[in-house]
Design goal:
Blueprint lengths: L9 E11 L3 E20 L5 E4 L2 E4 L6 H12 L6 E8 L9 H16 L9 H11 L2 H9 L2 E6 L5 E6 L6 E6 L6 H6 L7 H20 L2 H7 L6 H4 L6 H10 L4 E4 L6 E5 L4 H9 L7 E5 L12
Parallel strand pairs: 3-5
Antiparallel strand pairs: 1-2, 2-5, 2-6, 3-4, 6-7, 8-10, 8-11, 9-10
Length: 307
């Protein structure tokens, strides 16, 4: 499916994502309504430029995931590298576990493909595997590309298997994050190199409950299923007030509250009528400058799929 090549700017809105959702470590992603807006115009300049909220920043392809992904998208479409001007406006907080880098990769890939005059549906699964190669883990970038809730598993053969997970519309969602980010490398270093057999066995059990709880919107399955033994306990001490916020969110009526990705943000699953109260409870424990809001599961990703 080809599109006419044009010099007019291309525009794209990409949703961010939360990953892990408790026990779905490095595989389970949920597309949430925090958005990255990007416009792109091919140029004849010597270098690509990225302007973020009116502040021009000159970047190299080696330094910016958006630009790297754009060039990778053009290569997938059979086009030569190109210079471009990007205008970026993002409400996805950086370093809070809401997939800012995954959304940038998704946006770059799709804009790169479209700038070459190709419809991304032609590339199908190749776009997802390209996103995995750039991001390093499938949960955030696959969710932003595909939409909804996804479970991505890299295969021993080198491929990627993606399952679309059904999410009941009766589940309400709330997010909150402190003023201070938690860089993913710091959060990764907090994890142990070995875990007990008991913990290794428990996480897949909980994931099975969580997936069914998401499908049915069953409160008890969500509460039990979101419990994690691989990462959350090691990362919570890095985020002042996070443990207290988790407890406060549950006390305010949430079915479950957990770290969003590696943190420092949190995400809660709750009855829709309790979401505002849960947001307030989370924010109250995350310190000065904390932010929170209701969000929804975004069903459509950056890469369009055949209906």
């Amino acid at each position: 499916m080809l599109m006419a090549v044009t010099d007019t700017p291309l525009s794209l809105r990409v949703a961010g994502s939360t990953s892990n959702l408790g026990p779905g470590f490095d595989c389970l992603g949920l597309c949430v309504s925090l958005f990255l807006d990007v416009s792109c115009e091919l140029t004849h300049d010597a270098a690509t430029r990225v302007e973020r909220r009116g502040e021009p920043v000159e970047v190299s392809a080696e330094q910016d995931l958006l630009v790297l992904a754009f060039q990778r998208g053009r290569a997938l479409a059979g086009a030569e590298p190109a210079t471009a001007r990007f205008l970026v406006d993002s409400e996805i907080p950086f370093g809070r576990g809401f997939g800012s880098s995954g959304a940038a990769v998704a946006a770059g890939l799709v804009l790169g493909v479209r700038s070459a005059g190709v419809d991304e549906r032609v590339l199908g699964h190749r776009l997802l595997t390209a996103g995995l190669a750039l991001e390093g883990h499938p949960d955030n970038v696959v969710a932003s590309l595909r939409g909804g809730c996804t479970l991505g598993v890299p295969l021993a053969s080198g491929g990627l298997e993606v399952l679309d997970i059904e999410v009941a519309p009766t589940i309400g969602w709330a997010v909150a994050w402190p003023a201070t980010p938690l860089p993913t490398p710091v959060a990764r270093r907090a994890l142990p190199t070995h875990v007990s057999l008991e913990d290794a066995v428990e996480n897949p059990r909980r994931l099975a409950l969580l997936l069914e709880g998401l499908r049915r919107g069953a409160p008890h399955l969500l509460t039990e299923g979101v419990q994690d033994r691989l990462h959350e306990r090691y990362r919570l001490p890095l985020i002042p007030g996070a443990a207290e916020a988790l407890a406060a969110g549950r006390a305010a009526g949430a079915y479950a509250v957990t770290l969003s990705g590696a943190g420092s943000g949190l995400i809660a699953l709750a009855p829709p009528h309790r979401v505002e109260a849960v947001v307030a409870a989370l924010v109250s424990h995350l310190g000065p400058g904390a932010t929170g809001r209701p969000v929804s599961c975004v069903p459509h990703g950056a890469a369009r799929r055949d209906s």
